[in-house]
Amino acid sequence: xxxxxxxxxxxxxxxxxxxxxxxxxxxxxxxxxxxxxxxxxxxxxxxxxxxxxxxxxxxxxxxxxxxxxxxxxxxxxxxxxxxxxxxxxxxxxxxxxxxxxxxxxxxxxxxxxxxxxxxxxxxxxxxxxxxxxxxxxxxxxxxxxxxxxxxxxxxxxxxxxxxxxxxxxxxxxxxxxxxxxxxxxxxxxxxxxxxxxxxxxxxxxxxxxxxxxxxxxxxxxxxxxxxxxxxxxxxxxxxxxxxxxxxxxxxxxxxxxxxxxxxxxxxxxxxxxxxxxxxxxxxxxxxxxxxxxxxxxxxxxxxxxxxxx
Length: 309
Hints:
It is built from ten helices and 13 strands. The protein is an alpha/beta fold. A hairpin with a 2-residue loop joins β1 (6-15) and β2. The radius of gyration is 24 Å and the shape is elongated. The model is unreliable at 295-302 (pLDDT under 50).
């Protein structure tokens, strides 16, 4: 099996004259993958293509090393409310397990275990129509994982939830990794991805803004230097040596350039005879990256403050 849970190459899809995805290319590793973008960014379209529910205009898709729709060990929690409100939770989740190929007795056992996992053990014999929004979201999650999938797609699983319900759902998503389940988590709430995922794909208007490990995405390519005084002078000395440096909020920000940047900083500090308070790599949140990065397939640091965009 492929070491990647998803391998997408030059994926394009149109709805009539509307281009939903435009040359999307990425390779997602095992674990928890975040799919981030505003409404209309192409997240749901990408998921449906990976599930084989849509056929792309062009490009290739591999899911767990095989074609879309060819993997029985895949689960799907849709964003839309598609639950049978006149059925009991236990019956519906057991039926979902049967559809995935489990025998009747095993399906009932798995349904009971899964509803316990998502916190609906005592309510499993109630009708789904009597459930709150948060409880219905848990039922949707249960039917997606009841057959013990290798990979589960979660499309906006926290939609419509209050803060307490959202926190509970995020904790459930984090727990899936402990059961060996790979997750693709689609949302427009960037902080949810930072809380639950190891790797993220940022989509905007059907194009890839950025992709990679959460920690790697947070690397801005900038070094932050805080000194006791002569801040402007330190920045000037670095520019004289050919480095891009500016002063922002009393801190020197320098474009990283290998080990030599640290030697240059040392020379500038010694020349100005000032104390060095702080020297580290500047980090950015996913939200900051989302609003500063141009579409690209490789990590690019955002422009330095005060520099032309």
